[in-house]
Amino acid sequence: MTTDYNKIAEQYREVKGRPWRSLVEEYSMLQLIGSVAGLKVVDLACGEGFFTRKLRQQGAASIVGSDISREMIKLATEREQREPLGIDYLVEDVRAEGPRLDHDLAVAAWLLVYTHDREELAAMCRGLARQLRPGGGSSR
């Protein structure tokens, strides 16, 4: 079963304010990512931009948030308009073919858990790799 984030975008955003999110998820994710100071970052499956904004605030030189859900990107864009940090948000499927990009770091907090089979997992991994410049890395 696949979650339709277009239908639950508002509720998802509200959940990000719960204490366990900041005390467990946010802390753990940011510890795993490490310093982003000066890096060109892409946040895949960014949702409403929660981690995208955190990474920009922690010094990413530039950051793009990407998600397959139009509603999630709409929420992220609305927040960016209210509180600008210089973040670009795109509706994009990480599995889609495209040119190699040149990010230093690709992060994806909640992406790979949505694969249905090995082929989809491979497509997502290729999509992650496509985002990176030669020698770039993905979140640890």
Q: Can you give keywords for this protein?
A:
globular; 5 strands; 19% strand; 5 helices; 140 residues
What does this entry show, briefly?
With 140 residues, the protein is an alpha/beta fold. It has helices at residues 5-15, 19-33, 50-57, 70-82, 118-130, and strands spanning 40-44, 62-67, 88-91, 103-107, 132-138. Strands 3-2-1-4-5 form a five-stranded parallel β-sheet, sandwiched between helices.
Structure description:
This protein has helices spanning 5-15, 19-33, 50-57, 70-82, 118-130, and strands spanning 40-44, 62-67, 88-91, 103-107, 132-138. By secondary structure, the protein is of the alpha/beta class. Strands 3-2-1-4-5 form a five-stranded parallel beta sheet, with helices on both faces. The protein contains five helices and five strands, in the order ααβαβαββαβ.
Strand content: 15-25%
How large is the radius of gyration? 14 Å
Structural class: alpha/beta
First CA to last CA: what distance? Answer: 27 Å
Instruction: Summarize the main sheet.
Output: 5 strands, parallel
Would you list the SSEs in sequence order as H and E? HHEHEHEEHE
Helix proportion range: 40-55%
SSE layout and pairings?
Layout (H helix, E strand, L loop, with lengths): L4 H11 L3 H15 L6 E5 L5 H8 L4 E6 L2 H13 L5 E4 L11 E5 L10 H13 L1 E7 L2
Parallel strand pairs: 1-2, 1-4, 2-3, 4-5
